[in-house]
Amino acid sequence: MKLLSSFKKELILASRSFYFYIELGSALVILAVLLLAVPENFSTTTTQYLYLGFPQAEKEMYVDTVLESESGVESEMVEIEAGGKTYDAQLITTDGEEIYIVDSEEAVEKLAYEKQAPGAVVKLDNSNQLSFKYYLQGYESTRLKNLISIMFNKDIGTLEEQIKNQEIRSLTADYEPINDRENTIPPIISFSSGLMGMFILASYIFLDKKEGVIKAYAVTASSVWQYLMSKIFVVSLTSVISGLIITMPVMGFRINYGLVLLLLLTTGFFSSSLGLLISSFYNDLMKAFGVIYLLVILFMVPAIAYFIPGWDPFWIKLIPTYPLMQGFKEIILPKGDIIYPLIASAGFLAAGVILFAVTNIRFKKTLSV
Amino acid sequence: MVSGRIRREIMAMIKVEGLYHSYTRDENYALKDVNFEVENGEIFGFLGPSGAGKSTTQGILTGLLQLQKGNVTVAGYDIRKIKRKMFNKIGMSFEQSNVYSKMTAIENLVFYSKLFDVKTRDPLELIKLVGLDGKENIKTGEFSKGMKHRLTFARSMINNPSMWFLDEPTTGLDPAIAAGIKDIIKEHNSRGVTIFLTTHNMFIADELCGRVGFIVDGEIRLIDSPKNLKLKYGKKLVEIEYAVDGNVKKETFSTIIKEDKDALNKIIAESVILTMHTKEATLEEIFIKVTGRGLV
After folding, report:
1. Predicted complex ipTM
2. The model's pTM
């Protein structure tokens, strides 16, 4: 009854507090960005500018060869603006490339500079041999530079044969990838629902400390843990709502929402308890801001491992946001491992219980006159 | 002898023995060997200047501060092993108003009424009692300081406390409202409620308290009833106006303290006396005489 009253009170306070609307508003903004700005699959099309210093007949022969090399290759005449000038170009669009064939070496140089894309000049030298000049941007990898060198030192036919003879086998036959938009959901949920809970709960406590209402609560027959738990309930509820706002429109009903709710609730409990613990050491948000900021930075590090799968050191798996993101990813993968989010949820619940117990003891001791 | 001691402990609503407290947890004590008792049904005034240790004592009695050294029982409960049900018997009105500013007056009281295991009072009745009727549906963030203070006072009565802690209950209130608050305190006391009144307002203490304790620098200097204090010190003061070096000076002297008598005799002998008459000592003057300190 007392817990329920405290929960109702927290709901009233949350509904009249801007933190509540900030979290829900942020979720809506993130959703809008996901649906309207983030493509389902990020474009991997590369743009290149090319000048062919050949007679017209050879030039047309090259273009015809490219157009016939694979299906879906298209060609059109376009105008490109760069540095206040307009250049005529023939645009050849393939599956992964946009090649602009321009009329002069000067145009390639200018376009490569202005558009920050690679350019190449191919022409015949004085001895009637093909000469190649590349305009790179400076950030190209050593591998690409080595590849270009190999192309001029090895027989192209041998290289083609080597590539064709390579066998590629998938080790996980059941793996079905998700699109890029769906792939961005786990880190977004982790930060917007998980970490915001820590920040918002600490803010609620500091507001109560400022108004002195904790002291008034402390002289009632209700326990401190009920006061703290009622706040956790409200923050977890907000986390669940904002998490579903982001997840449902993108994922539809293709995922297990029981697991989503479980993970959102347990991570909400964990992050709220962490926020409570932090707020037990300080009297206002400004003093606690340094610690909260450091934790947010630390918790963001696993996002690097998430987007760069090749970088996955052991220590990063110990940061709570790592299992949180991976747990969400397993939930949204078509054939994801449901054991992982279950174990992650159990871990967050256990960690949350420990943090809550410590916080309860601290709050009992740190109420001041 | 034993039965007498037990009866005395039952009679004592508050019992404090050898209480020490240090915020820095060293020998720098905010409270030093504080001992006193508050009888069941009395109004006990705890008086002292700012920083004397009033709030620290009250914080320990209400469990807001941890008991470090000494023995304290409140309403029969040992403060060292505090139990939540103790607070069913306790009401606490804070000096600094502490209500939820985003909730209305009635929402505040309804919420607090649910936090006790005993029958609670009608929130609307309490709001009317402190003169806030018609304001019950206004968020307290829009209240004046005095209105918040009255609501904080009203909240402290929500659980019908038998032990009522009041910290500066009339501070910041206009005289008419302050008089109403004093009437409420008297009415509760007449029904047997024990009241621990912390204040630096000697007039309200004089008017309401059966006994007062003077605390200065964390030590209790004196405990007695205002009546006894006046009998002891009253009409034994002389207020004298005299001229010295062309300037008019006004001073008050005790006629029983040797240093005061010597000083008075010296003035009579050496100065031109303009006016001189005996007067009844106010509680504030007694406090200053006893402690050597003002109340600010």
Report:
1. 0.81
2. 0.74
